[in-house]
């Protein structure tokens, strides 16, 4: 059974930092591409950042220079370091595991990030 368990969300002020974690089980973690997506109220889910199984990264333009995605294959965990948080970063953040060229794609339950003054 595949499980992706996110943690680290919370309520913070603008300019603050948070680190999200996603612990994976039930998959061969080091062959999966991992990603963080977010969905704000009334908006579609969007890609925030992704990291390939080899460590290549890609970011949404809105978070470039502020967010950093990383992975620890030994711990089966992917992280999202979020700095200089803005009001518009408020959303539910979801972890995703994708095995390229297959139908293997899995989602976590999401963690709420609220940026408010």
Describe the structure.
The strands form 2 sheets. Strands 2, 4, 5, 6, 9, 10 and 11 form a 7-stranded mixed β-sheet that branches. The chain has 117 residues and is mainly beta. Helix content is 0%, strand content 51%. The protein has strands at 3-7, 10-12, 18-25, 33-39, 46-51, 57-59, 67-72, 77-82, 91-98, 105-107, 111-115. The mean pLDDT is 97. The protein is built from no helices and 11 strands. Strand 5 (46-51) and strand 6 form a beta hairpin.
What is the strand and helix layout of this fold?
Elements: E1 3-7, E2 10-12, E3 18-25, E4 33-39, E5 46-51, E6 57-59, E7 67-72, E8 77-82, E9 91-98, E10 105-107, E11 111-115
Number of strands: 11
The total of helices stands at 0
Q: Pairing-aware structural class of the strands and helices?
A: mainly beta
Order of helices and strands: EEEEEEEEEEE
Mean pLDDT rating: 97
Please describe the structure with a list of short key phrases separated by commas or semicolons.
single chain; 7-stranded mixed sheet; 4-stranded antiparallel sheet
Q: What's a quick, concise take on this entry?
A:
The protein has 117 residues and is mainly beta. The protein has strands at residues 3-7, 10-12, 18-25, 33-39, 46-51, 57-59, 67-72, 77-82, 91-98, 105-107, 111-115. Strands 2, 4, 5, 6, 9, 10 and 11 form a seven-stranded mixed β-sheet that branches. Strands 1-3-8-7 form a four-stranded antiparallel β-sheet, with no helix packed on it.
């Amino acid at each position: 059974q595949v499980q992706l368990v996110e943690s680290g969300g919370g309520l913070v002020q603008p300019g603050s930092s948070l680190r999200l974690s996603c612990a994976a089980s039930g998959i061969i973690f080091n062959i999966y591409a991992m990603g963080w997506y977010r969905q704000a109220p009334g908006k579609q889910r969007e890609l925030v950042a992704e990291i390939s199984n080899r460590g290549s990264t890609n970011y949404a333009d809105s978070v470039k220079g502020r967010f950093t995605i990383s992975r620890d294959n030994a711990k089966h965990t992917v992280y999202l370091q979020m700095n200089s948080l803005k009001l518009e970063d408020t959303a539910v953040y979801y972890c995703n595991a994708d095995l390229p060229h297959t139908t293997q794609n899995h989602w976590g339950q999401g963690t709420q990030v609220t940026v408010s003054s």
